[in-house]
Amino acid sequence: MTQTLHPTTTETTATSTEERRTTIRRSSDRVLPADRPNTVSWAPREDQQEGGPAASASTATVPALAADSSPDSTPASAARVRPGSLAAVGSPAVRPPAAAHLSDEQVAELARELDAVRDDVLSRRGASDAAYIRRVIRLQRVLELAGRGCLLNAQNKVAWVAGTAMLTFAKIIENMEIGHNVLHGQWDWMRDPDIHSTTWEWDFVTPSTAWQNTHNDLHHRWTNVIGKDRDVGYNVLRMDEDEQWQPRHILNPVINAGLAPVFEWGIALYDLELDRVKAGEKSREELMRDLRSVGVKAAKQFAKDYAATPVAAELLTGSGKAALIGTVVANGLRNIWAHSVIFCGHFPEGAETFTEEMVEGETRGDWYVRQMIGSANIDGSKFMHFMTGNLSHQVEHHLFPDLPSNRYAEVAPKVREICARYGLPYTTGPLLKQVGSAWAKVFRLALPGK
Amino acid sequence: MAGLSLIKRMAEALLHPMTPQDVLSLLDPVHSSRQLRGVVTKVTRPMPGSVTISFRTGPGWRAHDAGQWARIGVDVDGVRQWRSYSLSAPAGADPEITVTDIGKVSGTLVRTTKVGDVLFLARPEGDFVLPEEPRPLLMLTAGSGLTPVMSMIRTLVPRRPDADVVLIHSARTPQTALFREELEELADQFPGLTVHHHFTSESGRLDLTDTATLDALCPDWRDRAAYACGPSGFLDDAEHLWATHGPTGPGALQMERFQADLTGGEAGAGGLVVFEQSDTEVQAPGDVPLLEVAEDAGLPAPSGCRMGICHACLVPLRSGQVTDLRTGEVHGDPGQLIQTCVSAAAGPVSLGL
Q1: B276 and B248 both lie in a single domain
Q2: Across the strands, what pairs with B195?
Q3: Are B79 and B146 in a shared domain?
Q4: Facing B285 at nearest CB: one of A70, A80, A119
Q5: Which of B86, B255, B315 comes nearest A3 by C-beta?
Q6: Which residues span the domain enclosing B77?
Q7: Suppose A70 and one of A128, B131, B157, B285 were both cysteines; which one would form an S-S bond, judging by CB atoms 3.0 to 4.6 Å apart?
Q8: From the record, what ranges are coiled-coil (chain A) (predicted)?
Q9: Do A217 and B305 touch (CB under 8 A)?
Q10: What is the distance between the alpha carbons of residues A5 and A277, in angstroms, rounded to a whole number?
Q11: Is residue A70 in a domain?
């Protein structure tokens, strides 16, 4: 008699040979997957059955349940167990001045309230959110294709303007509302390999994985902690009063103005972490590996916009030069926009920085506090929020980096109300004011003193 | 061919990091560079609480053999869920599944599927298939166990004049018997097919505890290659009957079993954690993140923020479920990538690490 068994063996081989090469960082405990998980592992292999025929025997190696063999295991409850090194109650060595009036109990209560805000969104997240991101991706692709299509006939002025505009919008939407947020894992819950933090590659020079390391982990964990969050000044600008002034800082405004139109190249360079190589925290081999991956990505990005598109335009309509100008302008405008939005996140007046003492012994509530008072929002229309990838809700994004971006707007009033009740600053302002405020800081800190 | 590949290269250069499939998917959602897809072409509801869905498939699909099943991914509340369904269309044809509402995924399919919807697919699998050499066949099916056998009948009966198939199908009532009209028409049209419907609401359970039923309905049952598909009890009876009174030998009785997914975890339970790639097993408590369990076992697990925000520590779950230490929620389906820094074992767990 034969019973049919799912031939899981073949697929097991496929995924078990899937290499997840890992590199252990010296002098730090971070280990990063150099390769993303093979997408083979997406489809479940041990099958769940419902209404269909199935394996007659499950795998023979099902381990026995042995909960009683671990006597210290306690039931996991949201209140008792929070992951990582952050405790639920306690106090940091120093609480930031803006939160110094809060007691340990108040900070713990604040954490519970913010957890509840997050849990509330999670309970309602579903098909409408999934439909939203798919709609945005579709819109972005149509804009990108239409824009690039117009540029193929860029000698026509209308086609050039329309093409450049559409390509600019497409690139901004791809980087901000789609790329940044997908790479945060905001859409991982859909379990769709086409829209996932492990598979998404964005239209930006720096490779997704390199950026995820410096941004998702380092920046978001250590937000605005001087000496830990390298995003404070990106190693090239003096963006904090407590940073020792040096003569080179006189160039702050020049460097910042020069950085804006080539922002994507700046970020690619930044993600190589040359300062950490110099300090011996990152090995030469790791640097070479990163250089290779950024080299491949940069070549493809460069070839697309500055070779393939103009060449195709030249061959089809003789408008290669106009097409090249179009792609340069589109990339430049996107860079300036991204730079402006990102500088509004933590540098405007009101957003605080922190010392390492303030994160020593930090509780979960203190972590939340630091995210809120270290970030700054931008007020504006729905369209503005969309074009910033909802980074205009920087406070909410820093509290809940992996909640879907389309939900930040509804979270914002609750967070603002909590801030008001606990006497914490909630920094926000219109776009021009926030951009101006960040730039004022760039100029102010070019000079010695505060 | 050289020209085609040049065009493809050119398209890739122009589109990076988009792929040509991403562009094609704007026109026809069946395209994807990462997963097999199908687009629903026809939806019929043969009776309340069930649905028959036909779909066309995208590049990469392999046509099924009669009797095979495929895993099908369905978005339920925005989240991709995978289940296996028998393909009831004839071999080689565009696939068709018939689904009865018995759970979350099947319920969604029954209630919401419409023409144009996208389904996510894995290639057809299974060796519950027709014999290679022509032989007289006996099909024993109950309820939706008819679906793989329907593919065999549709494949064999109209195409082979020498087909000799007896189908004994058990359903609750005439109204709930799947494919009843089609089967009766086929039986009228082709002498090679004999159909016996058994309705449990009228005549009780189809009795396979002794040979009487088979002797009456299909006297030469011992000379036929038998295929059985249906609920567990039904198949256990058939298995026992063949073991005690029936023929033995390869292909004497082939069975395909239903099996419900019962791998639910328990919050805080802990359990044996198997790291499959590393060939390591560890007993883990229910409140320690799997990342720490892996590291304590000396495995180089990917990690990042250690507080659930950066998604650097994702590892595929192979089996079992995990507790989200932030919310206490127990979750996990095979193949799902889980955040090991905020997930603990909720019972026995296997990980692709």
Answers
A1: no
A2: B167
A3: no
A4: A70
A5: B255
A6: 19-121
A7: B285
A8: none
A9: yes
A10: 53
A11: no
Q: Are strands B314-319 and A53-54 parallel, antiparallel or unpaired?
A: unpaired
- Same domain? B278 vs B330: yes
- pLDDT above 70 for B202: yes
Which of A44, A80, A138 minimises the CB distance to B334? A44
CA distance linking residue B268 with residue B344, whole number of Å: 8
- Those residues of chain A that have pLDDT short of 50 are 1-83
Last residue of a domain, one of B229, B257, B285: B257
Pick the closest to residue A20 from B341, B337, B290, B289 (CA basis).
B337
Measured in angstroms, the CA of A340 and the nearest CA of chain B are apart by 24
> Chain B: nearest CA to A97, how far in angstroms?
25
Omega prior to B191 cis, within 30 of 0: no
Gap between the Cα atoms of B241 and B247, Å rounded = 10
Question: To probe the interface with A, which of B109, B307, B343 has the most A CB atoms within 10 Å?
Answer: B307
Respond yes or no on whether ipTM tops 0.95. no
Whether residue B287 has pLDDT greater than 70: yes
**What tens digit of pLDDT does each residue of A294-334 get?**
999 999 999 999 999 999 999 999 999 999 999 999 999 99
Contact indicator for A389, A180 with CB cutoff of 8 Å: yes
**Is B77 among the domain residues?**
yes
Nearest CA distance, B323 vs chain A (angstrom): 8
> Is residue B3 included in any domain, yes or no?
no
Q: In chain B, whose CA is at the least distance from the CA of A152?
A: B14
Q: Residue A88 has what pLDDT?
A: 85
CA of B180, closest CA in chain A: separation in Å?
Answer: 18
- Span B43-69, mean pLDDT? 94
Q: Do residue B83 and residue A85 have CB atoms under 8 angstroms apart?
A: no
For residue A32, the model assigns a pLDDT of 35
pLDDT band at B33 (very low <50, low <70, confident <90, very high): confident
Asked if residues A175 and A338 have their Cβ atoms less than 8 Å apart, the reply is yes
Closest in B17, B257, B342 to A56, CB measured: B257
What are the tokens at A52? 């269909």
- Compute the distance between CA of residue A112 and CA of residue A116 in angstroms, rounded to an integer: 6
Residue B258's pLDDT band (cuts 50, 70, 90) = low
Query: Residue B145: is its pLDDT beyond 80?
Result: yes
Instruction: List beta partners, residue B55.
Output: B40
Per-residue pLDDT band for B249 (boundaries 50, 70, 90) equals confident
Residue B5 lies in a domain: no
**Closest to A430 measured CA to CA, from A378, A391, A393, A377:** A378
Q: Using CB atoms, pick whichever of B71, B97, B286 lies closest to residue A76.
A: B286
Q: Count how many domains chain B has.
A: 3
User: How many domains does chain A contain in total?
Assistant: 1
Q: Check CB contact under 8 Å for B303 and A41.
A: no
What are the chain A neighbours of B16 within 8 Å (beta carbons)? 300-301, 303-304
Cβ neighbours for B37, distance < 8 A, ≥ 6 positions apart: B29, B30, B31, B57, B58, B118, B119, B120, B121
Question: Shortest CB distance from A46 goes to which of B15, B103, B318?
Answer: B318
For residue A398, being part of any structural domain is answered with yes
Query: In this structure, is residue A376 part of a structural domain?
Result: yes
Mutate: best of A122, A140, A182, A191, partner B, most B CBs <10 A: A191
More confident residue, A302 or B259: A302
Residues 40-79 of B with CB under 8 A from A: 69, 71, 73, 75, 77-79
Choose one of B93, B121, B149: the last residue of a domain: B121
pLDDT digits (tens, 9 = 90+) for B301-348: 998 888 888 899 999 999 899 999 888 889 988 888 999 999 999 999
Residue A52 is assigned to a structural domain of this protein: no
The position carrying tokens 């003096």 is: A238
| Residue B72 belongs to domain with CATH number | 2.40.30.10
Give the pLDDT confidence score for residue B305 in this predicted structure: 86
B341 touches chain A (CB under 8 A): yes
Question: Are B252 and B275 found together in one domain?
Answer: no
- B234 and B343 both lie in a single domain: no
Q: Could you tell me if B152 and B227 lie in one domain?
A: yes
DSSP H or E stretch at residue A395: helix A394-399
Pairing of strands B50-57, B314-319: unpaired
- Structural domain including A121 reads 98-446
